Amino acid sequence: MLYRALRVVVRPTVLAIWRPDVVGADNVPAEGPVILASNHLSFADSVVIPLTAPRQVAFLAKDDYWTGTGVKGLINRSFFTAIGSIPVNRDDPRAAQNSLDLALEHLRGDGAFGIYPEGTRSRDGLLYRGRTGVAWLALTAGCPVVPVALTGTDQLQPVGSPLPKRVKFRVEFGAPIDFTGRFDDVPAGRARREATDEIMTAIQAMSGQEPAGRYNERKPELPA
Fold it and tell me: In the UniProt record, does the keyword Transferase occur (predicted)?
């Protein structure tokens, strides 16, 4: 119900105000499990993708958004529930694996799940090396991966800015990547690495970002 309200009321309003360039939305399968793997430039990315994708996309979000009190707590709880976010306790020592397990459960329920293979936001605009959690999910769930390239969202909500700014941004959904049967005879670790690198190459081809050639070592915001 909340998601329907978001699509009917909030989405048209946001698109009318910001007028983002949305490319390739028809590349997202209309049904069935799918992973949307995106570069990560801003806190706003986890709002931008669900609002521009043609179907509901779930992201992980810290469970604090569901436990707040007062008006702000109600707004956060309602909003993150409406966009399909999945609460996760990041203070749990097993947070990374628990996050992947929650994502896998969502995919096995034929959902669409969004993830940032870089792990955390790029503060310098470079595209960092992808962590292999995205490939583990794709290979375990047996689902396709749609690479997503965001451009300009770092200016939409710069680090430290509490509210979004009215700037132009772009969301491009690439052609789905299907790994079915491609790594049957490849050692698991190598398969995850090669699949992840292929996903990151597809993202880079669309975003035009310069590859950093290394991992982003800031504390990950999503499993990788």
Answer: yes
- Token pair, residue 107, equals 């995919």
Query: What's the start-to-end Cα distance of the chain, in Å?
Result: 31
As given in the structure block, the two tokens for residue 175 are 């052609």
Amino acid at 130: G
Q: Give CA–CA dist 95/73, Å, rounded.
A: 23
Determine the pLDDT at residue 90: 67
pLDDT score at 220: 41
Q: Would you state the structure tokens that stand for residue 96, as one six-digit string?
A: 């990374």
Q: Which residues of the chain have pLDDT under 70?
A: 1-7, 90-93, 218-224
User: Is residue 65 within 8 Å of 77, Cβ to Cβ?
Assistant: yes
Q: CB neighbours (10 Å) of residue 54?
A: 14
- Rounded Cα–Cα distance for residues 135 and 122 (Å): 20
Residue 50 C-beta-side C-alpha neighbours within 13 Å = 27
137 Cβ contact list (under 8 Å, min separation 6): 35, 100, 103, 104, 107, 113, 115, 143
pTM score, whole prediction: 0.89
Could you tell me the two tokens for 149? 């390239």
Tell me, what's the pLDDT at 224? 36
Element at 129 (helix H, strand E):
none
In 3D space, the residue among 219, 148, 213 whose CA is nearest the CA of residue 177 turns out to be 148
Looking up tokens 């049957």 gives 184
**3-class secondary-structure state, position 217:** coil
Count Cβ neighbours within 10 Å for each residue of 157-187 and write b for 16 or more, e otherwise. Answer: beeeeeebeeeebbbbbbebbebeeebeeee
